[in-house]
Write a structure and sequence with these properties.
- It is a single chain.
- With 278 residues, the chain is of the alpha/beta class.
- Helices cover 36% and strands 18% of the residues.
- The chain is built from 10 helices and 10 strands.
- Strands 1-2-4-3-5-6-9-10 form an 8-stranded mixed β-sheet, sandwiched between helices.
- Helix 1 links the parallel strand 3 and strand 4.
- Helix 1 packs across helix 10.
């Protein structure tokens, strides 16, 4: 593992971690957590796949990346462009984003369709950016272990149960490793400033249809981004596999890790096959 801070002191610097060598894979976490959300769910998958250099940045205002001087999603995109130019350059790369990171990933596809070998989306924001405009189900709990919940402080309990569909020991352990540290590290003041200008000026899907292998994974019980709005994205991504997983909310990556692995591996195989045939 290589851990790096880019040009310390600049507004665009993004802290990141990297693993492996080979084709770059850029993984973007969602709103508030940090890179650990993505390393936690993706590194077990890449443990059995060689030939990929996985790059996991903290988005501005989250994790160890400063949000100073950034007041919009456009500013976050500018930081990502600089990060890509510095760490990847003109090399083709694989792109995957979760939730808000999926919104940013779709924006990058609109800007760099020829450079991106494949697009993966986990519980992405769909066609409606604002939560009040989304089609989402009510939050439900399908499995809960009272003994597990009894170990949490009131604040931890509220954070964990707010969107968790499976409230079990295994899910809690992964949540505490992958999600909770990022929530604690977030610069809420910077995020509030950015949140006031959340829409990208260059909207996702504003470019030509993206015809490379794609993946859209949604949770059937996801009360944050839902699963219905993402279906409307399929016309723009004609090579996308679209799946809605039962027993999965907005923490799909830790509630259904085995199915996540199956779908991500299939997507990576499709990308590799396309690169070989091309």
């Amino acid at each position: 593992m290589n851990q790096t801070v880019l040009r310390k002191g600049t507004a665009m610097a993004l802290h990141h971690v990297s693993h492996g060598e080979g084709t770059p894979v850029l993984a973007l976490h969602g709103w508030t957590p940090d890179h650990r959300l993505m390393t936690g769910c993706l590194e077990p998958i890449f443990a059995d796949r060689s030939g990929y250099r996985r790059l996991y940045p903290d988005l501005p205002g989250m994790g160890k990346s400063s949000g100073d001087g950034i007041d919009s999603s456009d500013g976050i995109m500018a930081a990502l462009r600089e990060f890509i130019d510095t760490e990847i350059g003109a090399e083709p790369f694989v792109l995957i984003g979760e939730s808000y990171g999926g919104y940013l990933a779709r924006g990058l596809v609109a800007e760099r369709p020829d450079q991106i070998l494949g697009l993966g989306l986990i519980c992405p924001i769909g066609v409606a950016l604002e939560h009040a405009e989304r089609t989402v189900p009510e939050h439900v709990v399908l499995e809960s272990d009272p003994a597990v919940l009894a170990t949490l402080t009131p604040e931890q309990l509220a954070d964990f149960t707010e969107i968790s569909v499976l409230q079990t020991a295994d899910v809690l352990r992964q949540y505490q490793e992958d999600v909770e540290p990022g929530l604690d590290a977030a610069d809420l003041r910077a995020m509030a400033r950015i949140r006031r200008n959340w829409a990208l000026t260059i909207a996702p899907e504003s470019g030509p249809v993206y015809t490379r292998p794609s993946l859209i994974l949604c949770g059937r019980q996801d009360s944050v981004t839902g699963y219905a709005d993402q279906y409307s994205l399929l016309a723009h991504y004609p090579r996308a596999s679209y799946a809605v997983l039962d027993r999965a909310g907005h923490n799909l990556q830790i509630e259904q890790p085995a199915l996540l692995g199956l779908f991500v591996n299939d997507w990576l195989e499709r990308i590799a096959r396309e690169a070989t045939s091309g």
